[in-house]
Amino acid sequence: MPQATPLSFSAEQLAAIRYDAGGLVPAIAQDIDTRAVLMLAWMNADTLRMTLEEGRMVYWSRSRQEVWRKGDTSGDRQFVREAYYDCDGDTLLFLVEQEGKGACHTGAYSCFFRAFGQGG
């Protein structure tokens, strides 16, 4: 069973993150082993800090307007192994260890299972 491992960070690194007008930044979760992109969700300053401190992915649910710890209800948790921010500070990338059947609320391993030009 995967273990949560906090990641170190500095105040300067957190200050480099650029949030949109709603106080959110996109966060990409990628499987550390397969390198498959699992999902894109949103974080605010609080959930970014929680994610780094707890070592588990914590998002901001735009639809529910609340903190969302990935896997609390589904059991499909994501454990942070590495974390990055892009050159502009406006996108986050997390390499995670995925627990359970997958990242998507549909039950799929990845949210990106539909391709253009391949049927419906």
Brief descriptors of the model:
120 residues, alpha+beta, Ubiquitin-like (UB roll), four-stranded mixed β-sheet, two-stranded antiparallel sheet, 2 helices, 6 strands
Report on this structure.
The structure is a single chain. The chain is of the alpha+beta class. It has a single domain (11-98), classed as Phosphoribosyl-AMP cyclohydrolase (Ubiquitin-like (UB roll)). Helix content is 12%, strand content 31%. The protein has 2 helices and 6 strands; from the N terminus they run H-E-E-H-E-E-E-E. It has helices at residues 11-15, 45-54; strands spanning 25-31, 37-43, 58-61, 66-69, 78-85, 92-98. Strands 2-1-6-5 form a 4-stranded mixed beta sheet. A two-stranded antiparallel sheet has the order 3-4. Strand 5 and strand 6 form a beta hairpin. The longest helix has 10 residues, at 45-54. It is globular, with a radius of gyration of 14 Å. The mean pLDDT is 95.
Structure summarized in a few sentences:
The chain has two helices and six strands, in the order αββαββββ. It has helices at residues 11-15, 45-54; strands spanning 25-31, 37-43, 58-61, 66-69, 78-85, 92-98.
What's the arrangement of secondary structure elements?
Layout: H1 11-15, E1 25-31, E2 37-43, H2 45-54, E3 58-61, E4 66-69, E5 78-85, E6 92-98
Parallel strand pairs: 1-6
Antiparallel strand pairs: 1-2, 3-4, 5-6
